């Protein structure tokens, strides 16, 4: 197999840069594996490691600092057969830390080569996430204050199933990279090297010193037993194959006449857990059965099990322009949490509005027609009061009628639930 | 009559699927999350991919990768997420990567109010990229628009090879509404163009007679280069000022000179009206109510609802405002798009009405200002 190095763009690393060693090792790997350029995508980001993509005659994607793993993931999910090799420096590792952790957890079949030379070469030798505290670098005393991370250990802890540490000078680096590429899952190779342009100016670091340092660590040479599992893309495709296709929301035919012409607004003021939004949906469907247009806006706290739950619904034979509430035909009051959010609305109501108020929930003074109802006394549970109030309204032939409600609940609910809902309607209208 | 119930976010998801979107990556954020929820139900059984990423930066990064591999890709977020996406947006602009980005706007600044609507990102979307090259931004008014404009957004992303934004709003995204599916406008689906065969592939060489390069996917037979660095037609970094200028000017031109082809708008022009209300987004609904009221009262005004916000459809605005004496710009912020209107209509009196308190601007307020 021929070299995949780009003859028109020879490497431009500083003399003595260990990136050169990695570059030629990687090229040897590709040759040993018999890969063509169009079977490989080199993905890189910023820093000297980001020059890698230009030196190979392969597919290439070069992007923003620390984000290489995100592009690589998108490519791999879209093209599972592609060999995706990511080069990243210790700089990209720091700024893209969240992506590294997620890539380890996710386990897409990518190969990450960390070109770890313990500093930011391109911007003046500042400290990175792997700079030793005793090193003299371009960040003054600041690197003395922070602890470097051991990328390989982090990758193991985050769930990477293939993790290795290596020196850029290691003879068997091409074989190690080949194992990493062949491994079906996320593989990380932390490759230690030197930056002659910056780091070596004020620090001594030789291949032997790198070997010594690596030998002091618990070795990591590839597969991590406790992290081995099915590759993400394969798992995804298996799970996706079990999913059933869904259809867009079904249409609802108009079959009744609404009780009144014109725009009708309804506000339901309740609390979390009272199935306010479901009642709103039922009312909306009821409107559709009478050929009315509808809009429904809901309001609730992000803590969905506590606090107010409010539904604002508009039904109209005309197209609905403004979706805000102006003159409600009905306000349903079910809990003080909702009332507190709409005190000014209740204050402003006139006699054209019907307020259905469950007993025990106070409301501010109002000129609306207030009708008190005791759903509790009728044996209806608090969680069903919203629906009961709709039944009550339909009994008054106000906003909706009983045919519309009956059709709506039959569309919205099935089987046992439908049966229970119909019982509530019967109790509320008894 | 047969009506269906959709929220704005439901409509965006279904339209994306129908436009050919097969890749969605996102991070949960109110009020955009239900687009992700929908995509997660729609795409996987149909052979598409949906991913929940570690953050919005990654969501855009995965979309960029998938788009470069040839898929139509979309992400959806809100103001805080768009902020994070900025560097990736710049990449997609400068490297001509087709993408659809939905910004379901919520009340800012910052994390602001997750459940309250606003149109506060309108200038931010335009200028929130390094380099300042033009972007396409479409603004739906209602569920119907969410459907149609999302399909247009995918087409525009493919035709011009650029990110296209949908500037939605909590008040559209999470408002459930009845729509007649049969009456929806569904544009024909357009796919990115391949380069002519023969000769070596240059990833940033314009197609004949066009300002847009032909596309080949990363991972295909022909080797493809993509880079966020300033590049020449071959996709390699360049320092040649002439080459740089040629590339930048082409990317500027390919979108700006084509605006008349995709100036989506609804214009309700009344003969003899002296006032034009110009608005966009959910506020247009209140403005329509005012337009109708005043017409009934025999005191008509004209109304222009912009659905393409960027590039500014200058000819369209100019033409619609030609006959009126004053223009009232209404928007759910402290005055963002009004700057553009003032710039285009130098000789007109431009009045601004804005509101930024999480509530819809009411027809009454608009009417007061419209009547002066």
Descriptive overview:
- The complex is a heterodimer of chains A (about 425) and B (about 375).
- Chain A has two domains: about 20-240, Thiamin diphosphate (ThDP)-binding fold, Pyr/PP domains (Rossmann fold, 3-Layer(aba) Sandwich); about 265-430, Pyruvate-ferredoxin Oxidoreductase, domain 3, CATH 3.40.920.10.
- In chain A, about 35% of the residues lie in helices and about 20% in strands.
- Chain A contains 16 helices and 14 strands.
- Chain A has helices at about 20-35, 50-55, 70-80, 90-95, 95-105, 150-160, 175-180, 200, 205-215, 230-240, 275-290, 335-340, 345-350, 385-395, 400-410, 415-430, and strands at about 40-45, 60, 85-90, 110-115, 160-165, 185-190, 220-225, 250-255, 265-270, 295-300, 310-315, 330-335, 355-360, 370-375.
- The termini of chain A are far apart.
- In chain A, about 50% of the residues are buried.
- By secondary structure, chain B is α/β, with parallel strands linked by helices.
- In chain B, helix 1 packs across helix 2 (about 35-40) and helix 3 (about 55-70) packs parallel to helix 4 (about 80-95).
- In chain B, strands 2, 3, 4, 5, 6, 7, 8 and 14 form an eight-stranded mixed β-sheet that branches. In chain B, strands 11-13-12-15-16 form a five-stranded mixed β-sheet, with helices on both faces. A two-stranded antiparallel ribbon of chain B has the order 1-9.
- Chain B folds into two domains: about 1-260, Thiamin diphosphate (ThDP)-binding fold, Pyr/PP domains (Rossmann fold), CATH 3.40.50; about 265-370, Rossmann fold.
- Chain B is globular.
- Strand 2 (about 60) of chain A pairs parallel with strand 10 (about 225) of chain B.
């Amino acid at each position: 197999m021929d070299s995949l190095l780009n003859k028109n763009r020879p490497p431009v690393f500083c003399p003595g840069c260990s990136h050169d060693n990695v570059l030629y090792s990687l090229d040897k790997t590709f040759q040993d594996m018999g890969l063509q350029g169009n079977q490989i995508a080199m993905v890189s980001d910023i820093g000297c490691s980001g020059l890698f993509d230009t030196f190979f005659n392969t597919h290439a994607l070069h992007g923003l600092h620390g984000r290489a793993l995100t592009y690589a993931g998108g490519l791999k999910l879209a093209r599972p057969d592609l060999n995706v090799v990511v080069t990243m420096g210790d700089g990209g590792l720091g700024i893209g830390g969240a992506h590294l952790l997620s890539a380890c957890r996710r386990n897409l079949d990518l190969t990450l080569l960390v070109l770890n030379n313990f500093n930011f070469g391109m911007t003046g030798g500042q400290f990175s996430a792997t700079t030793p505290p005793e090193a003299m670098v371009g960040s003054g005393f600041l690197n003395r204050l922070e602890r470097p991370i051991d990328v390989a250990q982090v990758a193991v802890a985050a769930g990477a199933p293939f993790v290795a540490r290596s020196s850029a000078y290691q003879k068997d680096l091409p074989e190690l990279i080949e194992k990493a590429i062949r491994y079906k899952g996320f593989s990380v190779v932390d490759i230690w090297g030197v930056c002659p342009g910056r780091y070596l100016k004020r620090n001594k670091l030789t291949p032997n010193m790198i070997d010594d340092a690596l030998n002091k660590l618990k070795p990591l040479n590839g597969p991590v037993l406790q992290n081995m599992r099915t590759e993400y893309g394969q798992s995804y495709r298996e799970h996706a194959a079990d999913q059933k296709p869904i259809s867009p929301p079904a249409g609802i035919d108009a079959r009744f006449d609404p009780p009144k012409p014109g725009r009708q607004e309804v506000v339901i003021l309740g609390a979390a857990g009272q199935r306010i939004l479901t009642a709103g949906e039922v009312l909306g469907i009821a409107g559709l059965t009478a050929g009315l247009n509808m809009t429904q806006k809901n309001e609730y706290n992000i803590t969905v099990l506590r606090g107010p739950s409010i539904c604002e619904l508009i039904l109209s034979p005309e197209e609905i322009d403004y979706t805000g509430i102006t003159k409600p035909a009905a306000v349903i009051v079910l809990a003080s949490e909702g009332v507190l959010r709409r005190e000014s609305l209740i204050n402003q109501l006139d006699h054209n509005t019907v307020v259905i108020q469950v007993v025990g929930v106070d409301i501010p003074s109002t000129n609306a027609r207030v009708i008190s109802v005791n759903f509790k006394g009728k044996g209806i549970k608090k969680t069903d009061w919203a629906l009961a109030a709709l039944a009550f309204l339909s009994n008054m032939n106000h906003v909706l009628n009983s045919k519309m409600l009956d059709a709506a609940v039959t569309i919205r609910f099935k089987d046992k639930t439908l049966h229970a809902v119909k019982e509530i309607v019967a109790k509320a209208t008894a | 009559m047969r009506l269906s119930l959709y929220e704005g976010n439901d409509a965006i998801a279904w339209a994306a699927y129908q436009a050919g979107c097969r890749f969605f990556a996102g991070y949960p954020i109110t009020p955009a999350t239900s687009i992700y929820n929908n995509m997660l139900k729609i795409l996987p059984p149909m052979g598409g991919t949906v991913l929940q990423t570690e953050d919005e930066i990654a969501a855009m990064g995965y979309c960029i990768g998938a788009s470069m591999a040839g898929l139509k890709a979309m992400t959806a977020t809100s103001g805080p997420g768009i902020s994070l996406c900025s560097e990736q947006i710049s990449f997609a602009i400068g490297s001509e990567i087709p993408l659809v980005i939905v910004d379901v706007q919520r009340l800012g600044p910052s994390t602001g109010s997750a459940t309250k609507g606003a149109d506060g990102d309108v200038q931010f979307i335009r200028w929130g990229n390094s380099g300042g090259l033009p972007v396409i931004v479409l603004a739906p008014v209602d569920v119907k628009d969410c459907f149609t404009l999302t399909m247009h957004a995918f087409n525009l992303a493919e035709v011009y090879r650029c990110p296209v934004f949908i500037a939605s709003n909590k008040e559209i995204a999470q408002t459930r509404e009845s729509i007649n599916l049969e009456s929806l406008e569904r544009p024909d689906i357009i796919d990115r163009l391949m380069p002519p065969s023969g000769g070596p592939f240059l990833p940033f060489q314009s197609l004949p007679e066009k300002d847009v390069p032909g596309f080949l996917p990363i991972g295909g037979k022909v080797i493809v280069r993509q880079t966020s660095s300033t590049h020449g037609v071959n996709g390699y970094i360049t320092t040649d000022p002439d080459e740089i200028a040629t590339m930048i000017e082409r990317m500027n031109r390919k979108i700006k000179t084509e605006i008349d082809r995709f100036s989506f708008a609804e214009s309700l022009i009344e003969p003899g009206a002296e006032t034009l209300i110009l608005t966009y987004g959910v506020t247009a609904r209140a403005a329509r109510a005012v337009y109708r009221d005043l017409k009934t009262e025999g005191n008509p005004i004209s109304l222009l609802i912009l659905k393409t916000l960027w590039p500014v459809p200058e000819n369209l605005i100019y033409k619609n405002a030609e006959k009126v004496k004053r223009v009232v710009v209404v928007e759910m912020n402290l005055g963002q798009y009004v700057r553009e209107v003032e710039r285009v209509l130098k000789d007109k009196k431009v009045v601004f009405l804005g509101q930024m308190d999480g509530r819809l601007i009411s027809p009454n307020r608009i009417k007061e200002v419209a009547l002066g």
